[in-house]
Amino acid sequence: MGDDAGGTLVIGNPQAGRGRVVRRWDEVLGRLRDAGLDPQGRLTEHPGHATELARKARSEGRELVVAVGGDGTVHEVVNGLLADGAPTSPDEVLPALGLVPAGSGCDYARTFAVPSGIAASVAHLVSAGMRSVDVGKLRCQGDAGEHVRHFVNVAEVGIGAEVATRAARLPRSLGAGRYAFAFALTLAGQRTVTAEAEIDGDRYQGPLTNLVVALGQYYGGGMRVAPRADPSDGRFDVQVQFGTKADYALAMPKVFRGTHLPHPRVSEERAETIDVRCDPAARVEADGEVLGTTPAHFSILPEALR
User: Fold this and answer.
1) 0.85 cut: is pTM over it?
2) Which domains does the chain show, CATH number per domain?
3) DSSP codes joined into one string, the chain
4) Are 211 and 156 in contact (CB under 8 A)?
5) How confident is the model over 175-215, as pLDDT tens digits?
């Protein structure tokens, strides 16, 4: 990689889109070359490889890192770009993040109206203006102690994380429908927990079915869970949900349209920091990746990426 330092690194997930990335890999690189870039492509070889490649790209001074895949690929790349922390010197500029959606779940790209399809998304990448975006930092309890990850789209505590856990076990052949199927399977056995949350100093104590901490608007294959979220405004859109199973079942069609809010059993906030504890401990996910359990702390890094 060293010979092309300062240029563009393209990181692709060969498992994304049921093999579509591999089948069209040469096309992705060719279209980027035709657009005037000089890309070097790397297909990932194991979980966490995209993080390793993105971290190295930063150390080499790359100008642009393009994630080709779904939200999981974007999540890994973001964590590689920020693995060594935010820049501490004005002389250090992180590589810009580019998106070519090609996975079963490409929800982060939806917030920016990145079109589907290789040709259209590459054209959008080279023509769209640069935009700074916020990043969330999450601390939760992992198997080996405290776990720290960055995220750029949506994080959840509660039923959303349980759904993500179940979806990860379902066949990838279900595509974007995995989340809806997992939701239906999870809802029947879901239990409400008791939560204590501090949201920018405001306290909540009571029942919790799901806590949504959003930078982007979409998750779960096109559900517009946070329709007013702005990934560049320096705040999370937070939803404390304490609805019944019937509430969730009835709201599901509305979530895809983003018309489920306001709701009498959803408290909406905008915040920079959130601390939450649950009894019993609840699962935590971010960008569709199940990361651990509560207690959890969320903080925002304004304009950490572009």
Assistant:
1) yes
2) 2-130 (3.40.50.10330), 135-305 (2.60.200.40)
3) -GGGTTSEEEEE-TTGGGGHHHHTHHHHHHHHHHTT--EEEEE--STTHHHHHHHHHHHHT-SEEEEEESHHHHHHHHHHHTTT-S-SSTT--PPEEEEEE-SS--HHHHHTTPPSSHHHHHHHHHHSPP--EEEEEEEEEETTEEEEEEESSEEEEEHHHHHHHHHHHS-GGGTTHHHHHHHHHHHTT---EEEEEEETTEEEEEEESEEEEESSS-BTTTB-S-TT--TTSSSEEEEEE---HHHHHHHHHHHHHT---S-TTEEEEEESEEEEEEES--EEEETTEEEEEEEEEEEEEEEEE-
4) yes
5) 667 888 888 889 888 889 999 999 999 999 999 999 999 99
Report pLDDT digits (tens) over 212-243.
Answer: 999 999 999 899 999 999 999 999 999 999 99
